Every structure is written in C-alpha cells, then in structure tokens.
Amino acid sequence: MQMWVNLLKDTLKNKLKNGDTMPYNQEDNTPNIILITKRSGHPASSRIDVTHRIIHIYDIIDSYISSGIISFLPFLIDESESEPITIKISTIGGDVNDLLSLIYEFNKLSCPIITEITGIAYSAGALLASVGDERIVSKYGELMYHYPVWAVPFDIGMKEHGDIVRRTKDLYDRLLTDVASQTTLSFKEFTGKFLTTDWYVTPKEALKYNLVTKVI
Questions:
Q1: Domain-by-domain residue ranges, the chain?
Q2: Where are the beta strands (DSSP E) in 51-185?
Q3: Strands of the chain, DSSP E
C-alpha cells in the first residue's frame, strides 16, 4: 500500500490530473485538495480535502465520481487509519453499480465514517449516507428513497431483460436490507414507503426513523 501511495504522489507531482490545480503541502508535495472532474475543462464540484479528511460529493454519482474517490482513498488512509473521514453529500442520485462500489470501499475502512447531508440526498445519495457511523443532515436538507428504473440494453429479448432486472433488484434489496437494519423500521415497512412512489423524508422524519443520527 505504501509503495502504491508513494508512486501516486510522485505521479501527481509531475502531472496534474485533467488539468486541475491542486494546492500542495510544501513539505512532502502531498496534494491538500484533490479535484474530481467529469472531464477536462469542466469545473469540479466534488473533491477530496486530504488535510481535513473530508470528501465532498456534489455531483451525480457515476463512474467518474466513484473511481476518482476510490483511487485517492489511499491518501487518507496513508495519513491515518483511525481518524474519522467525513463525507459531505448533496446530490440528486446516481448509478446503482457506482454507488455499490463506493459503499464497498467505505465499508472496508477501519476508521470511523461521518456522513453529512448538506443539501439534498436523493436516491443513491440517501443510500450512500447510510454508511456513516454518525449520520448528520442539515435542518434544511432532504432525503429521498425509491426503487430506481433499471437501465438494460434495448437489443435483448424479454426473458433476458427480465432476468437482468430481477438480479439487479435482488442486489439492490440486499443493500436496502442493510439500510433498514439501522432504522426503527422493518425491511417491509421501510421499502413499503417507496414501493410505488418516491419517498421524500424531512430531517425530522429522518431522525425519527433513525435514518440519521443528528440534525444540525
């Protein structure tokens, strides 16, 4: 791990990713802020603050965001394996597979995770917030849960289409089972709230059901 982190540091010293500027620690050339962009020339809304151990997710969660965060997590682990990492979230959602990749990586960490919903956390954003040992939402925030529309190739048969949807839903339900286990609701009660329609949750409701642990 250390050799990989050192190699990554050396690479970043010589070539800035996607043309982004990164403020560096002058002592060891470690980037203090890592910008995660979807493509060159576009402003970065999501970033990793290495100095303060904060991950900001303010974009749709897709392969750019998930791979960017996962690639640079070793910077945070290299600094400390016990100090908390804070994930600040304000997003309308994203891709299920990319969400699952992020959750998998965060669940592997030995350090405490604090998730903080600073605005809205819809769909994948609300589920990502569930990884926190401490789960905070702004009093002006809002969560939303639903069953996503499954995107599958259009050039396959009906049976194959149904098989893909069924397998993906089973995978999603396993994640929802973990989320429900943190709440005051059973799995059936939890999923029943958004089985046929989107479930928008106020901070007060989120605290009531233990979807979050604190409102600030």
A1: 2-215
A2: 54-57, 85-91, 113-122, 134-137, 142-145
A3: 33-36, 46-49, 54-57, 85-91, 113-122, 134-137, 142-145, 199-201, 214-215
Could you report the per-residue pLDDT of 38-80, keeping only the tens digit for each?
655 555 678 888 888 999 999 899 988 998 899 888 878 888 8
Distances (CA, A) of 28 to 6, 31, 53, 183: 10, 9, 17, 43
pLDDT tens digits for range 74-88: 878 888 889 999 999
Predicted TM-score (pTM) of the model is: 0.80
Name the percent of the chain in helix, strand, coil, to the closest 5: 40, 20, 40
Could you give the angle at the alpha carbon of 92 between the alpha carbons of 83 and 172, nearest 5°? 75
CATH homologous superfamily of 2-215 equals 2-enoyl-CoA Hydratase; Chain A, domain 1 (3.90.226.10)
pLDDT per position as a tens digit, 9-44: 555 444 444 444 444 343 444 456 677 666 555 556
Angle at 177 between CA 183 and CA 187, to 5 degrees: 65
SS3 8: helix
- Taking alpha carbons only, the member of 1, 9, 65, 79 closest to residue 35 is 65
Query: What's phi and psi for 154, nearest 5 deg?
Result: -85, -15
Contact status, residue 82 vs residue 49, Cβ threshold 8 Å: no
